[in-house]
Amino acid sequence: MSPLQATLTDAVREAAHRSVLCWLATVDAEGQPNVSPKEVWAIADDQHVVVAHIASPISARNIAQHPQVCLSFVDVFVQKGFKLLGTAREVRATDAEFSTWAKPLLAMVGQRFTIQSVLVVHVKSVIAIVAPSYRFYPDDTTEASQVASAMRAYNVQSVEKEKT
User: Fold this and answer.
1) pTM recorded for the entire structure
2) Beta strand pairing status for 68-75 and 48-53?
3) 87 and 122 in contact (C-beta within 8 Å)?
4) How far apart are CA 41 and CA 95, in angstroms?
5) Helices H / strands E in the chain, number of each
6) Who contacts 79 (Cβ-Cβ below 8 Å, separation ≥6)?
7) What average pLDDT values come out for the chain (164 residues) when binned by 10 residues?
């Protein structure tokens, strides 16, 4: 699949909002990849994603050495998401721009976590991620069928609102 525009569109924002975690891939000085789950992250604007460095010393160190990163997220029920390629930099709590980049992250964590720094990803390309069923069985695969399948696989039961 070819890359989409580098702008973080409404579709990317909606998918990000539905995704609990993102996965940040970095590489160390020896070329060894590191993939780390990130719980506190947000789309900051049309070209940037911010990730809280709460317990991410390896990601931060790798970004300082090699700024190229890949950040991926998937809605586990719909089984669609996006892969974002770009460059990252660390903005420390002592930096003047920290409060600007950290604002959406601080709103998410409140007092629960201390944000050591913000990993700011400048997105260069956006590529859609879809489960193979969408490609190999396009006539039988819908978002609704994928959600139903995932709910069975994860043993999730839908909660019906009580009528009063």
Assistant:
1) 0.86
2) unpaired
3) yes
4) 19
5) 5, 7
6) 130, 131, 133, 134, 146, 150
7) 67 94 96 96 97 96 97 92 98 97 95 94 96 85 75 76 57
Length of the chain: 164
d(Cα 43, Cα 37) in Å, to the nearest integer? 16
Closest CA to 26 of 89, 73, 77: 89
Contact (Cβ atoms closer than 8 angstroms) between residue 33 and residue 159? no
User: Six-digit token pair at 154?
Assistant: 């994860």
Beta-carbon contacts of 38 under 8 Å, excluding residues fewer than 6 positions away, are 21, 22, 23, 24, 51, 52, 56
Cα four-point dihedral sign 71, 158, 131, 47 = negative
Specify the pLDDT at position 1.
41
Distances from the Cα of 124 to the Cα of 39, 49, 56, 67, angstroms: 22, 11, 23, 12
Q: What is the 3-state secondary structure (H, E, C) of 21-52?
A: CEEEEEECCCCCEEEEEECCEEECCCCEEEEE
47, 101 contact by CB (below 8 A): no
CB atoms within 10 A of CB 160: 6
pLDDT at 150: 73
Give me the residue label for tokens 């000085």: 29
